[in-house]
Amino acid sequence: MILLRSSLRRLGSTRDPSLACHQCLLHRNRPLSPSAVRTFFSSARLQSGIADDQSSSAILQKTYFSANKSIDGSPGKDGFIPSLSAANASLAHTTNASKNEGQAGPISADSELPHRRRKRLKEESAANNEAENVIPPDASAQLSHLSSTLPKSSLRRKMAAFLALTKPRLSVLIVLSTTSAYGMYPISSLLALDPSMTPLPTLSTSTLTFLYLTAGTFLSSCSANTLNMMFEPKYDALMSRTRNRPIVRGLVSRRGALLFAVATAATGLALLYFGTNPTVTALSASNIFLYAFVYTPLKRIHVINTWVGAIVGGIPPLMGWVAAAGQTATTGHDTWRDMLFSEDSIGGWLLGGVLFAWQFPHFNALSHTIREEYKRAGYKMLCWVNPARNARVALRYSVLMFPISIGLWWVGVVGHGFLVSSTVANGWLVKEAYHFWQHQGANGTARGLFWASIWQLPILLVGGLVTKKGLWDGVWRKAFGQPEEDEDDYLYYDDEDVEEAQVSSPPNNVTVPRPVNSA
């Protein structure tokens, strides 16, 4: 070993060990004793303390123990100490990795230590799982991004920013639930047989009422959503899901948002008042108040805010039902008590129950994916206050969808086909909610439940419209040849007809005196 080091000193610097004499290297090609190996490594450590970092690392380079090179750099024919070469090569990689750990240059996969590789793969796997659970940005964030890319003086920029205040997808969903309930309201078959007997709304007036209801509901929802954004921009800035909202980004001022909220509320409520009835208008106004002035501040106080938000979501179907009931006021639906608390209002309450129960699997899955952000922003949500209860509540209200759907069929709002469509949609939702509860939102179950809720509700509402009670009776009779009911079977008498019938057909053995004309 001493001979080897002396040869290296004579022939060249330790910075270029390839200049070593071939004869000297082959002289040490016999197996080394354990004591000699320990002497070699202790000498190397001693020299590394004296020489600079580059010199000491060069001694342990793989080229020192690989095939010898000539002075011009060409490789030799034979290798040098094959058994010791592999061991010292790994030592060289370890030394270089530890020294380069704090440097900017990346470490190759070959030189990465096993425990570091396992740690890196685990972190990458966790990052991929989080990326899979992230809910895509909502329409407000997309519109805000579009508005920020347009020139400041552009009209499209302002329109996109104000449209972002309305939460377009949420507003459209509210309109869908309202108009679906309006379309599912049953019309009495007796009244439909002879429209001349009662002033039922004609096609033109029904269409006009439908348009008033749609526009008024959308504008009222826009007002509530705008007020919600106006009250909490400071907290929206702390969350990735809401940090791109227009007020947070300065695309719309708080004063401008307030004026927009007042204008949309006034216009929407006016359309509902003149186009439907005062009861619908009162329901819409109460919904704006609950969402903006009760639900919004309650989010930072108690987890009961989720239940208040569910009530807000259940009111729009009731609005659609009452709007349809107001068109048949001659049947007795002439007061708000009759429209809301009569036997015929059960269908509207059941449809409101569908939206109430749907809020929990939908929102609990959504909030689970950003629970840390809710916690950092100070929002009291079950997703981080009590994650186990968050999953139980989502499963509980998903199961509740079954009896509510059966109730709609039981009271005669929908036909037998609705039992099939609702069972499929509700079964899918319950399956995803069970996985969400079983895994506590992990393994992508939160994302699965979220998307199941997104599709389940439209399937349920559109299925109710398609299978409305009595909608396909005429088609069924024509398809299977069943005779249609004859209008002559329904006879209507006035008081004079009843008296004449009693006179013309007296009971047996009874003589009925006929009236004598005064003339």
Automatic annotation (TrEMBL):
Keywords carried by this UniProt record: Heme biosynthesis, Membrane, Mitochondrion, Transferase, Transit peptide, Transmembrane, Transmembrane helix
Subcellular location(s) per record: Mitochondrion membrane
Alphabetical GO biological process terms: heme A biosynthetic process
Membrane topology designation: Multi-pass membrane protein
Main location: mitochondrion
GO molecular function annotations of the record: protoheme IX farnesyltransferase activity
TM annotation in the entry: 170-188, 208-231, 252-274, 280-298, 305-326, 346-366, 399-429, 449-467
Region: Disordered, residue numbers: 95-137, 498-519
Biased segments, Low complexity type: 503-519
Matching InterPro entries: Protohaem_IX_farnesylTrfase, UbiA_prenyltransferase, UbiA_prenylTrfase_CS, UbiA_sf
GO-annotated cellular components: mitochondrial membrane
Family named by the database record: Belongs to the UbiA prenyltransferase family.
Name by which UniProt lists this protein: Protoheme IX farnesyltransferase, mitochondrial
